[in-house]
Write a structure and sequence with these properties.
Distance between the termini: 16 Å
Strand content: 15-25%
Helix content: 25-40%
Mean pLDDT: 92
Shape: globular
Low-confidence stretches: none
Number of helices: 6
Radius of gyration: 16 Å
CATH class: Alpha Beta
Largest sheet: 3 strands, mixed
Order of helices and strands: EHEEEHHHEHEEEH
Structural class: alpha/beta
């Protein structure tokens, strides 16, 4: 889990790992591969949902699935169901609640079963029951071998999920340790 005050660099770090921003120095390797060549092994969920309002949930996922050469509607429907959304819902994203948008953004990040999942405030705008459902989904993914790096201000939801935390301040690593230290 990435921690730090607003402006500490948490979102920027996630964007750099995802290959969306360039580091000012050094390089980022994902499982020994430069991050820009390992994108197919990553799922990324930005703080803002970044969805197309004029499309339905399934249409949004189909659009993004093309980037991974995925054509299976069953795979996309399963991702929607995993985050608590109905894949048959034909409502346009512009009519979704903020929580529904957040869950669809998570479905987009996981539909290809990434080895590394980068999440920026995945519980934002999500009701408490949905947040618990998402936390359980992430715990299941972790148990299946997915590495998860996330930013959240709701550390309590990560009690069974996170092993350790990293604290950033002004773009610098200031400490890291076991999650047990955060919950004290």
């Amino acid at each position: 889990m990435l921690r730090g005050e607003n402006g500490a660099g948490k979102s920027t770090l996630l964007r750099m790992i995802a290959g969306l921003n360039e580091p000012t120095e050094g390089k980022i390797l994902i499982y020994g591969t430069p991050n820009t060549k390992a994108r197919h092994n990553m799922g990324y969920m930005a703080h803002a949902p970044l969805l197309y309002d004029e499309l339905s949930g399934m249409e949004n996922l189909r659009f993004f699935a093309q980037l991974y050469s995925i054509t299976s509607d069953e795979l996309l429907a399963r991702a929607m169901e995993r985050v608590g959304l109905d894949p048959k819902l034909e409502r346009r994203i512009g009519q979704y609640s903020q929580g529904m948008r957040q869950r669809l953004s998570l479905a987009r990040a996981i539909f290809h079963d990434p080895r590394l999942l980068l999440l920026d405030e995945p519980f934002s705008n999500v009701d408490p029951d949905s947040a618990l459902q998402i936390a359980q989904l992430l715990a299941d993914m972790r148990s299946s071998g997915t590495t998860i790096l996330l930013v959240t201000h709701q550390a309590g939801l990560l009690a069974k999920l996170a092993d350790e935390y990293v604290l950033l301040s002004h773009g610098q690593l200031v400490s890291r340790g076991p999650m047990a230290e955060v919950q004290q």
